[in-house]
Write a structure and sequence with these properties.
alpha/beta, Dihydrofolate Reductase, subunit A, 6 helices, DHFR
Length: about 230
């Protein structure tokens, strides 16, 4: 995806999605998921919160692509139809991961991916992939786009964000959920890595040597021993 890190960046485009969705019920979503498996979201964004335009991202950041790949390797990954279609040639499906595509159209064809019609069904499919060994790890990764992120935030345990210090052209209007209020209220806590400078990172605004940092948000209200 493009910013499916937020979109899977160059590896996939995490931006817009194909439909608004109803609120999710935690018990329904986690019905088939073992207690030690977390639901986590991952995206990249500008400091202003922009993740893309529905098909692309306003930056190229190789370090973030490596981070996204390392984080999600082997895992079940869930994305909306538009994010799936925005994956770059050679990365659809994302290699080495179980790709699950959410679309209201149950007849939609996603070669190499599993199509489901709801987020709860996508988590059930991810749980099955972990049970049968086609996926590994203890995380179901949500890759976007924007509406999928907003729908899944109430049922997520962890959010991993690459914040990139660059601007974006006006056409890039898809934004990530803001985590600021949730941190202020204590519902989530955040840890931030240091600002780093990319050797080869560029932005469509002409910026080079992009600065970036990785921020990890952990939900405090549903803390479980998810990781050994």
């Amino acid at each position: 995806m493009t910013g499916t890190h937020g979109a899977p960046r160059d590896d996939a485009a995490r931006a817009g999605d194909d439909a608004a969705h109803p609120p999710l019920d935690l018990a329904t979503v986690r019905a088939d998921l073992p207690d030690d498996v977390e639901i986590a979201m991952i995206w990249a964004q500008t400091t202003a919160g922009v993740i893309g335009d529905g098909a692309d991202m306003p930056w190229h950041l190789p370090e973030d692509l490596r981070h996204f790949t390392d984080s999600t390797r082997g895992a079940p990954v869930v994305m909306g139809r538009i994010s799936w279609e925005a994956l770059a040639d050679g990365y659809r499906p994302l290699p080495g991961r179980v790709n699950i595509v959410v679309s209201r159209d149950g007849s939609y064809d996603a070669p190499g991916g599993t199509v489901v019609t709801s987020v709860p069904a996508s988590v059930s499919a991810a749980a099955e992939a972990l049970r049968d060994g086609s996926a590994t790890g203890r995380t179901v990764w949500i890759l976007g786009g924007g509406q999928i992120y907003r729908q899944c935030l109430p049922v997520s345990d962890r959010v991993v964000v690459t914040e990139i210090g660059c601007g974006s052209p006006d056409r890039f209007t898809v934004t990530a959920p803001s985590m600021d209020d949730a941190v202020r209220t204590g519902e989530w806590e955040v840890s931030s890595g240091p600002w780093l400078t990319s050797e080869n990172g560029t932005a469509l605004t002409g910026e080079t040597h992009l600065r970036y940092r990785i921020r990890e948000y952990t939900r405090t209200s549903r803390r479980r021993p998810l990781h050994p």
